[in-house]
Amino acid sequence: MTAVAIPGLDTPPTTHSRVLSWVREVAELTTPDRVVWVDGSDEEAARINAELVESGTFVPLKGKKNSFWAASDPEDVARVEERTFICSERPEDAGPTNNWMHPDEMTATMSELYRGCMRGRTMYVIPFCMGPLDADDPKLGVEITDFAYVVASMRVMTRVGTPALAKFVDADGTEREFVPALHSVGAPLDAGQDDVAWPCSTTKYITHFPESRTIWSYGSGYGGNSLLGKKCYSLRIASVMARDEGWLAEHMLILKLISPEEKSYYVAAAFPSACGKTNLAMLQPTIPGWRVETVGDDIAWMRFGEDGRLYAVNPEFGFFGVAPGTSHKTNPVAMKTIDEGNSVFTNVALTDDGDVWWEGMSKETPAHLTDWKGRDWTPESDEPAAHPNSRFCTPIAQCPSLAPEWDDPKGVPISAILFGGRRATTVPLVNEARDWAHGVFMGATMSSEKTAAAAGKVGEVRRDPMAMLPFLGYNAADYFQHWLNIGANADAAKLPKVFYVNWFRRGDDKRFLWPGFGENARVLKWVVERIEGTAGAQETPIGMVPSAADLDIEGLSEPAEDIDASLAVDAAEWRQEIPLIDEWFDKIGDVPAPLRAELETLRSRLG
Ligand SMILES: Nc1nc2c(ncn2[C@@H]2O[C@H](COP(=O)(O)OP(=O)(O)OP(=O)(O)O)[C@@H](O)[C@H]2O)c(=O)[nH]1
Ligand SMILES: O=C([O-])CC(=O)C(=O)O
Ligand SMILES: [Mn+2]
């Protein structure tokens, strides 16, 4: 076959043979008008941003330096879990929580969709590295995309371009492995056809091939579906790598808590999407003398260090945060991070003076806005001005609370793991696991109300094990066993202690019982005191729970009844959880025996 001549295809900045052959193969299948190899430079970013302004995808903001507003297609606003697939050879390797199709069938189906899908468009080739570039075993990838918005966003979220590409071929010529990640909006252009500001397709596939460590995404430009280094690579594919190599790839923030005595503790916490990871990672403690620094807000890769402790690395380079609810009061660190500029805002509202706004940002609501659908908006409008899953995309380096060691390839040693969800009832503010297996049980059975981060009905309670339900690249039962193995292979004294938290319990009138945000530092303080053995706890059927007297609640303005109610363990409520956990375990099937035993212990303790 004669090679097709596509401008840019034949001037690659690498000699990596598989990169070259794969890029050519994709270009021949998708037939873009031109190929651009992304170098990650500032000049390139300025050019791409200008192109995005030209095409109407970006509106430059007047209120923030080098920052842009984008509005998606109204049907392309969140992750699409129904259209997300794990295409392992055997269905049982995807397991009962994932959509599955045989890789051959999916490859055939999607190849037909990809055929000619970049016609009239530019194909961008983005070399990237998840995690520090100077890691011993840098986790590399190449994303191919036909959407410049993805290039602009990947540059913020991920280490991209020339520095990453330099890692693909060693000094001695050895070519490293990389994850090929193909993305198309699925909207080819005919000659003379005008483009739209947010091209996408009604047909969507977010596909992972765990055995070949490959990602194919089609039809959506929304971050979680299109920034393939993030959830697709760093969780779904990386969880499979982690299973095979004995580490953990988790949906967790990483923070550093510094006590008044200047002792540092690193905490990792898994909460489902839109349940408070970014906020906790940037927490500003309300209690005197305590400080928090940020290491990561969404993903943690954890491996044992030589000293037998579990060390966590944040593989990302930016924050892709939920905008609504973010304010100088709730999350000043996020506000300061975005005020530095260099950010992309998607599906928020636009103020008349060219800045951004969303529900919960300020006490006063502006009298007039342009809403995320581009319509005039006033406080009388019936719909929110910003989409509930609107997002800011901003460089981590701009974060004023960033821990200096955030990009240390060695990672940070984790003292505590928190699991948490959004539950209006039943689940107390904090609950300490008796041991590792009990902690794994807490993670494996945790539940949360669905949020706007994924398409579908908001508010329904579902089990979301370790906040990984939408992000697990393999069978959930095997994943639980992997977590148990991590504990079994470790020195128990060096394992992080495990806790289960819930900031979202409500009173009769639906108010939150616990004030949350900066006040969550009080819970972190208790966690640290439990590690040090200095704080009390009550033994309950579900674990070790503090009473109000065990917590530092000095200066809290909430009524004592609310604090007590946030901590209450109601056996009757918990007995109602048991059939739901039974049902969940039946769905999982091969639940490891130690977790079945934990369930029986819980059942008998509840009586
Ligand atoms: N009541 C209450 N709300 C909170 C708390 N922490 C966060 N929230 C709200 O929960 C929503 C989501 O918070 P985030 O921190 O963005 O959640 P996330 O887990 O990072 O979400 P993803 O980025 O989608 O994974 C925001 O509207 C926050 O304002 C808290 O402690 N209490
Ligand atoms: O992946 C996304 O689209 C955004 C995100 O962080 C999540 O949903 O957890
Ligand atoms: Mn977040």
TrEMBL record:
EC number: 4.1.1.32
Location of the Phosphoenolpyruvate carboxykinase GTP-utilising N-terminal domain: 22-243
Top EC group: lyase
Location within or outside the cell: Cytoplasm
UniProt: Mn(2+) binding residues: K231, H251, D298
An example Gene Ontology molecular-function term: kinase activity
Biochemical pathway: Carbohydrate biosynthesis; gluconeogenesis
Cofactor dependence: Mn(2+)
Biased composition (Basic and acidic residues): 369-378
Keywords, sorted A to Z: Cytoplasm, Decarboxylase, Gluconeogenesis, GTP-binding, Kinase, Lyase, Manganese, Metal-binding, Nucleotide-binding, Pyruvate, Transferase
GO biological process, one term: cellular response to glucose stimulus
GO cellular component: cytosol
Active site, UniProt feature: C275
Record: residues binding substrate: R79, Y222, G223, G224, S273, N389, S390, R391
Membership in a protein family: Belongs to the phosphoenolpyruvate carboxykinase [GTP] family.
Described function: Catalyzes the conversion of oxaloacetate (OAA) to phosphoenolpyruvate (PEP), the rate-limiting step in the metabolic pathway that produces glucose from lactate and other precursors derived from the citric acid cycle.
Protein name per UniProt: Phosphoenolpyruvate carboxykinase [GTP]
Gene from which the chain derives: pckG
